[in-house]
Amino acid sequence: MGHIVMKFGGTSVATASRMLSVAEIVRSRLDRQPLVVVSAVGVSEPGESKITDQFESMAELAHAHKPFEENLDIIRSKHKNVLKELGLPWKTVDQTWKKLIKVLVNVDRPYREFLDEIFSFGERLSSNIITALFNSKGIPARCVKVEELGIRTNEKFQDATVPEELEGQVLAGLRKEKKVLVIPGFVGHTADGRITTLGRGGSDYTAALVGASFGVDEIQIWTDVSGMRSVDPRLIPDAERLDCISFDEAKELAYFGARVLHPKAIEPAMRKNIPVVILNTFQQDAPGTTIRNESVKQNKVIKAIANRTGAYRLNIESTRMLGSSGYMARIFNIFAKHETDIEVMATSEVSVSLTVDNPRDLDKVIKELEEFSNVSLDKGKTIICVVGEGMRHTPGVSGRVFSTLGTAGVNVELISQGGSEINITFMVDDKDSERAIKALYYACIS
Ligand code: ADP
Ligand code: ASP
Ligand code: MG
Q: Which residues line ligand 2 (CB under 6 A)?
């Protein structure tokens, strides 16, 4: 059996006891020469804020020359407690910690660059701890430094991507090691060495990049649920596990809200045809979900539903531009210029309706659009995406979906069916989303 990548998310490394489970899971698979990717230490109690969020609040304060010691204390004690419970000394993270303190006062640079360097310390610290833990348990391991990663990204700080042609360089210098490499997830760097991060939840993408570059047999994503479910288990706790889905199905689901897998993780795996398997750290023998190239036929036409709340809808209208061929190009150029991605879109002769998930530069986008259009913005929208390979050849699926929603009294806006015909995506008000998803689930899946 060949190599595997094993990625452990924040939930899997949130406490000392969970880290001990991680060590045992890795030990039981040493024959597959695992490469281990880790996220920052996660949330261990309900209500606790994520370490990566703590880093963000701290970076904001530090960059504004405001006191940040309170946040630093929270981060320090979280790591201190974990180390203490594992019987490991503070020395394990001391070097990284000192670096963090230095970086925190180096604020004379754009905030977004500063933030990414600060963000990286979550994964740096957790990878230090996991490496020391493995070694203390007799699993020879080495922590890969951020400088060694070779995850060369574009300059889109907070949401950086590795250009396809550079994917092969990931960890290029480290191919012949005998020890288990422990790799900090989520982090990359620009051509000139500035640290970037790959988007929230981006350690999954690191795992896929590492797996694709090494040509492993399988990319395992270890998390707190036994695989991908047909609906977010927070909405329908007994939604069934999907045994096997195609990369295309997974891409739609991940993109539209199935947080269990980061959408960027799919492309690198898909290009190299490496299966991605989602597994549960807390139930290690439970079967998970396998995502692979070929689609798996099942009786149900609709396999799963993903949803994402808090989306923004923009309506752009222009009678002046009616029939003008450059109109769409002009709109797209404005979005591209402000690095704002369009997600779902519907057009008519006089209006364009679309959604974006990142409102950061939306005011700039709107200002430019208003030079030649009337623009209105609606907030508080949920995007719902219904997915299944079987939809490709089955008539009447949309009819069923929309009549179900009609019966449930849900008003549907902005309907779109992608070219692949394996999904129907639409928008509803946030307040209607739970009702809409439950109605669809009971009518079409369960
Ligand atoms: P990690 O810390 O391991 O990266 P995440 O919180 O990013 O974990 O992802 C796991 C979570 O994804 C689950 O706890 C679950 O609440 C959520 N989730 C959303 N949609 C789905 C889905 N369709 N199937 C499984 N989990 C889902
Ligand atoms: N720690 C990062 C985050 O919270 C990356 C990850 O968990 O994958 O988003
Ligand atoms: Mg995640």
A: 9-10, 39-40, 50, 52, 122, 185-186, 200-203
